[in-house]
Amino acid sequence: MAQIVKLSFFLLPLLIFTLVRAEHTVVHRRSRARAFIESQCQTTLYPDLCVRCLSYYVSNFTKTLSHHQLAQIALKVSLSRAESTRAYVTGVAKELRRTKGKDYPAVKECLSQINDGVDQLTNCIKETGKIKEDGETSDFPWHASNVQTWMSTALTDATMCIDGFSGRAIGGKTKAMIKAKVLNLQQVTSNALALFNRFAARYRSFHVKKPKVL
Protein backbone atom coordinates (compact mmCIF):
# COMPACT_ATOMS: atom_id res chain seq x y z
CA MET A 1 0.00 0.00 0.00
CA ALA A 2 2.82 2.38 0.91
CA GLN A 3 4.45 1.74 -2.46
CA ILE A 4 1.20 2.49 -4.26
CA VAL A 5 0.84 5.78 -2.40
CA LYS A 6 4.45 6.75 -3.25
CA LEU A 7 3.89 5.83 -6.89
CA SER A 8 0.72 7.95 -6.96
CA PHE A 9 2.59 10.98 -5.60
CA PHE A 10 5.20 10.48 -8.32
CA LEU A 11 2.74 10.02 -11.20
CA LEU A 12 0.29 12.79 -10.26
CA PRO A 13 2.65 15.72 -10.98
CA LEU A 14 3.70 14.04 -14.22
CA LEU A 15 0.08 13.65 -15.30
CA ILE A 16 -0.70 17.28 -14.45
CA PHE A 17 2.37 18.46 -16.37
CA THR A 18 1.35 16.40 -19.41
CA LEU A 19 -2.21 17.73 -19.39
CA VAL A 20 -1.09 21.36 -18.98
CA ARG A 21 1.45 21.01 -21.76
CA ALA A 22 -1.14 19.44 -24.10
CA GLU A 23 -3.63 22.21 -23.34
CA HIS A 24 -0.96 24.85 -23.93
CA THR A 25 -0.13 23.27 -27.32
CA VAL A 26 -3.77 23.26 -28.42
CA VAL A 27 -4.28 26.89 -27.31
CA HIS A 28 -1.08 27.92 -29.09
CA ARG A 29 -2.21 26.27 -32.32
CA ARG A 30 -5.63 27.87 -32.06
CA SER A 31 -3.95 31.24 -31.52
CA ARG A 32 -1.93 30.67 -34.69
CA ALA A 33 -5.12 29.86 -36.58
CA ARG A 34 -6.77 33.06 -35.33
CA ALA A 35 -3.70 35.12 -36.23
CA PHE A 36 -3.85 33.65 -39.72
CA ILE A 37 -7.53 34.56 -40.02
CA GLU A 38 -6.88 38.12 -38.86
CA SER A 39 -4.05 38.61 -41.35
CA GLN A 40 -6.04 37.21 -44.28
CA CYS A 41 -9.16 39.20 -43.41
CA GLN A 42 -7.21 42.42 -43.86
CA THR A 43 -7.38 41.78 -47.62
CA THR A 44 -11.21 41.92 -47.60
CA LEU A 45 -13.57 44.88 -47.82
CA TYR A 46 -15.07 44.15 -44.39
CA PRO A 47 -12.17 42.88 -42.23
CA ASP A 48 -13.86 43.20 -38.84
CA LEU A 49 -16.90 41.24 -40.01
CA CYS A 50 -14.57 38.72 -41.62
CA VAL A 51 -12.69 38.10 -38.36
CA ARG A 52 -15.90 37.84 -36.32
CA CYS A 53 -17.45 35.30 -38.69
CA LEU A 54 -14.41 33.10 -39.24
CA SER A 55 -12.94 33.16 -35.72
CA TYR A 56 -15.98 31.18 -34.55
CA TYR A 57 -14.54 28.20 -36.40
CA VAL A 58 -11.04 28.43 -34.90
CA SER A 59 -11.98 26.01 -32.11
CA ASN A 60 -12.41 23.28 -34.74
CA PHE A 61 -8.77 23.47 -35.76
CA THR A 62 -5.75 22.40 -33.75
CA LYS A 63 -3.31 23.12 -36.56
CA THR A 64 -2.61 26.08 -38.79
CA LEU A 65 -5.30 26.76 -41.36
CA SER A 66 -4.47 26.71 -45.05
CA HIS A 67 -5.70 29.25 -47.60
CA HIS A 68 -7.83 26.52 -49.14
CA GLN A 69 -9.49 25.68 -45.81
CA LEU A 70 -10.10 29.34 -45.06
CA ALA A 71 -11.77 29.88 -48.44
CA GLN A 72 -13.98 26.84 -47.85
CA ILE A 73 -15.00 28.06 -44.39
CA ALA A 74 -15.78 31.53 -45.74
CA LEU A 75 -18.00 29.99 -48.42
CA LYS A 76 -19.83 27.91 -45.81
CA VAL A 77 -20.43 31.06 -43.74
CA SER A 78 -21.90 32.77 -46.81
CA LEU A 79 -24.18 29.82 -47.53
CA SER A 80 -25.32 29.71 -43.90
CA ARG A 81 -26.21 33.43 -44.02
CA ALA A 82 -27.98 32.95 -47.35
CA GLU A 83 -30.08 30.11 -45.95
CA SER A 84 -31.03 32.02 -42.80
CA THR A 85 -31.90 35.08 -44.91
CA ARG A 86 -34.04 32.92 -47.19
CA ALA A 87 -35.88 31.50 -44.19
CA TYR A 88 -36.73 34.98 -42.91
CA VAL A 89 -37.80 36.38 -46.30
CA THR A 90 -39.87 33.24 -46.93
CA GLY A 91 -41.78 33.91 -43.71
CA VAL A 92 -42.40 37.54 -44.69
CA ALA A 93 -43.56 36.52 -48.17
CA LYS A 94 -46.01 33.95 -46.77
CA GLU A 95 -47.50 36.52 -44.40
CA LEU A 96 -47.86 39.15 -47.14
CA ARG A 97 -49.45 36.61 -49.43
CA ARG A 98 -51.89 35.57 -46.70
CA THR A 99 -52.88 39.18 -46.01
CA LYS A 100 -52.72 40.13 -49.71
CA GLY A 101 -50.16 42.81 -48.91
CA LYS A 102 -49.31 45.17 -51.75
CA ASP A 103 -45.60 44.61 -51.19
CA TYR A 104 -45.82 40.87 -51.82
CA PRO A 105 -44.47 41.08 -55.42
CA ALA A 106 -41.30 42.91 -54.28
CA VAL A 107 -40.66 40.45 -51.45
CA LYS A 108 -41.37 37.49 -53.73
CA GLU A 109 -38.85 38.81 -56.26
CA CYS A 110 -36.28 39.28 -53.50
CA LEU A 111 -36.91 35.71 -52.35
CA SER A 112 -36.34 34.46 -55.89
CA GLN A 113 -32.97 36.22 -55.98
CA ILE A 114 -31.97 34.84 -52.57
CA ASN A 115 -32.95 31.34 -53.70
CA ASP A 116 -30.69 31.74 -56.71
CA GLY A 117 -27.91 32.96 -54.42
CA VAL A 118 -28.25 29.84 -52.26
CA ASP A 119 -27.92 27.69 -55.37
CA GLN A 120 -24.86 29.61 -56.56
CA LEU A 121 -23.09 29.34 -53.20
CA THR A 122 -23.92 25.64 -52.92
CA ASN A 123 -22.29 25.12 -56.31
CA CYS A 124 -19.25 27.09 -55.14
CA ILE A 125 -18.70 24.83 -52.13
CA LYS A 126 -18.99 21.69 -54.26
CA GLU A 127 -16.61 23.10 -56.86
CA THR A 128 -14.04 24.22 -54.29
CA GLY A 129 -14.08 20.70 -52.85
CA LYS A 130 -12.91 19.38 -56.21
CA ILE A 131 -9.67 21.35 -55.96
CA LYS A 132 -6.81 19.30 -54.55
CA GLU A 133 -4.94 21.34 -52.00
CA ASP A 134 -1.64 19.54 -52.56
CA GLY A 135 -0.34 18.78 -56.00
CA GLU A 136 -1.06 20.09 -59.43
CA THR A 137 -4.61 20.18 -60.77
CA SER A 138 -4.85 20.67 -64.52
CA ASP A 139 -8.53 21.61 -64.21
CA PHE A 140 -7.87 24.30 -61.61
CA PRO A 141 -8.50 27.28 -63.97
CA TRP A 142 -11.90 25.77 -64.83
CA HIS A 143 -12.84 25.19 -61.18
CA ALA A 144 -11.63 28.62 -60.10
CA SER A 145 -13.49 30.38 -62.91
CA ASN A 146 -16.72 28.61 -61.99
CA VAL A 147 -16.44 29.58 -58.33
CA GLN A 148 -15.66 33.20 -59.13
CA THR A 149 -18.55 33.43 -61.60
CA TRP A 150 -21.06 31.87 -59.24
CA MET A 151 -19.98 34.01 -56.29
CA SER A 152 -20.23 37.15 -58.41
CA THR A 153 -23.74 36.08 -59.39
CA ALA A 154 -24.66 35.56 -55.73
CA LEU A 155 -23.42 39.09 -54.98
CA THR A 156 -25.51 40.47 -57.84
CA ASP A 157 -28.57 38.63 -56.53
CA ALA A 158 -28.16 40.24 -53.11
CA THR A 159 -27.68 43.70 -54.65
CA MET A 160 -30.79 43.34 -56.82
CA CYS A 161 -32.83 42.29 -53.78
CA ILE A 162 -31.79 45.40 -51.86
CA ASP A 163 -32.33 47.68 -54.88
CA GLY A 164 -35.81 46.21 -55.33
CA PHE A 165 -36.91 47.79 -52.05
CA SER A 166 -35.75 51.30 -52.94
CA GLY A 167 -38.61 53.75 -52.61
CA ARG A 168 -41.08 51.12 -51.45
CA ALA A 169 -43.08 51.69 -48.29
CA ILE A 170 -42.82 48.19 -46.88
CA GLY A 171 -43.42 48.12 -43.13
CA GLY A 172 -40.49 49.99 -41.64
CA LYS A 173 -39.33 47.27 -39.27
CA THR A 174 -39.77 44.44 -41.78
CA LYS A 175 -38.07 46.37 -44.57
CA ALA A 176 -35.16 47.27 -42.30
CA MET A 177 -34.75 43.65 -41.18
CA ILE A 178 -34.74 42.29 -44.74
CA LYS A 179 -32.25 44.90 -45.90
CA ALA A 180 -30.01 44.29 -42.88
CA LYS A 181 -29.96 40.53 -43.46
CA VAL A 182 -29.35 40.83 -47.19
CA LEU A 183 -26.66 43.47 -46.67
CA ASN A 184 -24.90 41.19 -44.19
CA LEU A 185 -25.13 38.35 -46.71
CA GLN A 186 -23.68 40.60 -49.38
CA GLN A 187 -20.76 41.58 -47.16
CA VAL A 188 -19.81 38.06 -46.03
CA THR A 189 -20.04 36.87 -49.64
CA SER A 190 -17.79 39.71 -50.75
CA ASN A 191 -15.29 38.66 -48.08
CA ALA A 192 -15.51 35.03 -49.17
CA LEU A 193 -14.82 35.99 -52.77
CA ALA A 194 -11.78 38.03 -51.72
CA LEU A 195 -10.40 35.09 -49.71
CA PHE A 196 -11.03 32.67 -52.56
CA ASN A 197 -9.30 35.00 -55.02
CA ARG A 198 -6.30 35.17 -52.69
CA PHE A 199 -6.21 31.38 -52.45
CA ALA A 200 -6.55 31.04 -56.24
CA ALA A 201 -3.68 33.46 -56.86
CA ARG A 202 -1.40 31.53 -54.50
CA TYR A 203 -2.46 28.21 -55.96
CA ARG A 204 -1.65 29.35 -59.49
CA SER A 205 1.78 30.57 -58.48
CA PHE A 206 2.68 27.26 -56.81
CA HIS A 207 0.88 24.56 -58.79
CA VAL A 208 -0.27 25.62 -62.21
CA LYS A 209 2.38 25.11 -64.86
CA LYS A 210 3.04 27.93 -67.27
CA PRO A 211 2.90 27.03 -70.99
CA LYS A 212 6.27 26.44 -72.58
CA VAL A 213 7.51 29.05 -75.00
CA LEU A 214 8.52 27.41 -78.31
TrEMBL record:
Membrane spanning stretches: none
Predominant location: secreted
Molecular function terms from GO: enzyme inhibitor activity
Keywords for this protein: Apoplast, Disulfide bond, Secreted, Signal
Boundaries of every Pectinesterase inhibitor domain copy: 32-195
Family in the record: Belongs to the PMEI family.
SMART domains (UniProt xref): PMEI
The protein's name in its UniProt record: Pectinesterase inhibitor domain-containing protein
Gene3D superfamilies: Invertase/pectin methylesterase inhibitor family protein
Parts forming coiled coils: none
CC terms in the record's Gene Ontology section: apoplast
Position of the signal peptide: 1-22
One Pfam entry name: PMEI
InterPro entries in alphabetical order: Invertase/methylesterase_inhib, Pectinesterase_inhib_dom, PME_Inhibitor
Subcellular location: Secreted, Extracellular space, Apoplast
